[in-house]
What we know:
CATH 2.40.50; 2 domains; disordered N terminus; signal
Amino acid sequence: MKKLTIIASTLLFCFILSSCTNNPDYVYSTSTSNYSSSQDTAVASATQVNPVRNVPWDYRVVQEEVGDLVGSDMTIIPDNTLLPNDGNYATGDKVWILQYMDAMLTTDNDRRSQIKLSSWSTLKSFKDEKSALADLGNLKESIQTEVDLIGVYKTENAGKTREFAVITLPSGNVVKQPISDEKYASLKSKSKSKVKVTIEQVHLYDDYDQVYSKFRGWAQ
């Protein structure tokens, strides 16, 4: 009897496992994924994954005017943005404000990136432009650094040839840039997989360690 119970339990387990593995969403699925390959990346085409992330995109300093005073706050016109009146401003005063834009990045199954930019949001007010620009300089910094060179390639269409370089920036985003014939030859002959570039590091205002890198040119 005990032997029959063991056999029955084993058959039941096999039946349950079989039905689970036919489900593509089951974490232990044994189905084989189909891969489509490109020059540098193999993409699991059977995996429907669309990672989305928000990153700091840009900052700017603009001069605006104080509108209405509302308790301890003030409005900034013409958009009637409400800010704390920390500088004891009066209606009609000119102030410098720091504005912020973020971006929502989406990567599709073919590793193509799409971007959706937010509108400008007002963060803070300053009495003078010098103080505002000092704060801006801490949030957006231009540096030269070495990054990973994934590779270079050519495309040809209607008798016209174009060359591109593909690099990975410090924040992990992959960038494709058109390059000249001379730059193509120079990068193609490089023995190292590193290349010098100028980048802009954009920091998140309330979490300085969160940074997004933007390509700003090739360094000498």
